[in-house]
Structure formats: C-alpha cells, structure tokens
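Lecture 7 notes: from sequence to structure.
We start with the chain below.
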Amino acid sequence: MRFRWWNTNSNDPSDRWRERIGTGSIVFLLLVALGTNIPIVSAERSISDRLIDSFNTLRSLAGKSGGDVTVQPPVIPPIQLPVLVGDMLDGAQFTAASMIVKDHETGAVLFRKNEYVKRPIASVTKLMSALVVLEKQPVWTTSTQVVADDLIDTHMYAGDTYTLGDLWQAALIGSSNKAIMTLADAVGWPRPAFVERMNQKAVELGMTDTQFTEPTGLDEGNVSTASDLAQLLSSAVQTNAIRDVLVETEKNLYSKERKKQHHLWSTNWLLLGWIPNTFHSVIGKTGFITSSNYNFVAQITDAKGRVLDVVVLGAGTHEARFTEARDIANWVFEHYRWPGEETATTTQM
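Predicted structure tokens for the same chain:
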C-alpha cells in the first residue's frame, strides 16, 4: 500500500500544496536540494522502497566531499583589541556631560561617560546633512543663491550667489548655517523629504537614539548620543568629499553681489593649532547652541598611526570641548597597549 506523510482529510490550507505536487515530486525535490549524485530508480518500485534506497545512499555519502572540491570552513582570526594598562580614568574630571572614545580600527570603546544620554547636538548635525547631500550627486560648479531664511550666520547673506562647491566648504569649514540650508534646497528634495532622509540614514547607520528635525543644527530637536555620534563621525570621515574639506583650515568666499571677499577659519581649533597638541591629524566638526553647550566630534590620529573616534558633548566652555577631547585622546594613547606594542605609558593626567 502506498503511504502519505500527511492526513489527506486535513482541512489545513498549508497541506494543499502537498496534494497538488504528489509524493514522488517531494522526494525528487528533496534529493535535488540535497545535491547528491543518487541514481534515478525505477518508477515501478514503491515510494517506501525508493525512500529506503535514497537514505541509505545519503548515509554512505556522509562525510565525503561533494562536487569537484572540498570546501573548508573559513578560519577567522580573533580580533586583537587595545588593552588598558592601569586603572580607568574618572570621567568626573571633565566638564563634558557625555563622552566616548573608540578605537577606529576595531570599534572597541576605550573610554565612556554617559554615552547613551540623548542631548542636542547643534551643528554636528551638518555631518548627516552632508551625507544626504552627497546622495544626490551635486554638481559642485553649479551656482545658486543663498536662502532667505532668518538663520544665524556670519559668513553670507541672502541672495548672494555661490557655487555648490563654495557652499559645501563654507558649511563644513566655517559651519555656515545658510550654506548647508542652501545646499539642502539645491539638491532637489523638499525640506521635509530631506529631513526624512536624514532620519532614514540614521537608522541605516545604527543610530537608534538619534532624531533630526532640520539640516543646520539650530533646532534643539536635533538630538543624539555620544555613542551614536561616534558612528556618524566614522561614516562621515570615510567619505572623501567630507574628509577632504574637514582637513582644510580656511576658506575665502567672494560675493559678486556685494563685490566683497569674506575669509572664514575652520571652527576646529585643534586642527588650527590654536589649542596646542601633538597629534598627527584631527578631523572634526563642532556644534553649539545654548541648550547643547559645546560639542566636538573628531577622528584623532597620533604619530604612531593609531586612530581614535572621539565625541565630546556638553562641554562647559568653547575651549573646553577641544582641551577635553585632546586630553582624553592623549590619556587613551598613553594608557592603552595596542596589539604589537609591549608597554603603555602609565603617567597620570
């Protein structure tokens, strides 16, 4: 007698496909899925006999190589992380409300202070705005007029004409609010759609505690955490169009309408050397509004080529965001031993 693997009187809709294709087809599909070289048996024999033969053949093939080659599982070497030498630093000595330091290569957190607390991020917002602008592949030589919005800005005036390249540099070097808003308008999305894409991008980057309300950072509704901003920083500086501008110290803008040239400096005082430091490079973005206090995110590289992603949020003064970023980076470089290093300095701050 032939048998079935299911109840033919079943009213479960999930059983209907079995009745339509038949038992022989199920066995055939099973053998094809397993990918074995089992010979085709006579259709005259019973299903049960064919099943016994098939599974006996499968048993005989167990442990043998299939196809032309034997595939070995990949060998994944363990990740080697920096190792702390001595005791962890007390974050209370910093004025910053939130901080995080990560090893850029491995993502290991080397120092933390309230890293999951949501705070207004001010002009650090512009890093996300810049990523969204780049998705529209702007033509940098195209010219446009500065928006008429009443935005705090000391670098340009409404109606001035600049290329998108000039606006890009003004937005990231001098943190011009009118420049980034003009760019956001110029790429062709309505403003609500632009902001919606900023929030979608945050989700894609794993920034689950981040919310954007507009592109400049002037609105205190733009909030994030030190942990999330470390991810934004890392993604932004891996983008050449952003990285190449954030290493520039200054920019000259010329207004045809006012027939006047305007000079702007980078807002990154570690890059300018106005805050003394011995780093090989500091690529960063600042942010300040009253409700956020002083923010700074930076990728810092030392003379040995070690790279840290550093986030400082809510520092007490303009200079403190830079000195505290410098001091915590120096402390991490001195108190962690990287793979391949024999010792780490243990001097106190």
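Points to note: Confidence is low (pLDDT under 50) at residues 1-45. The chain has two domains: 13-61, 85-337.
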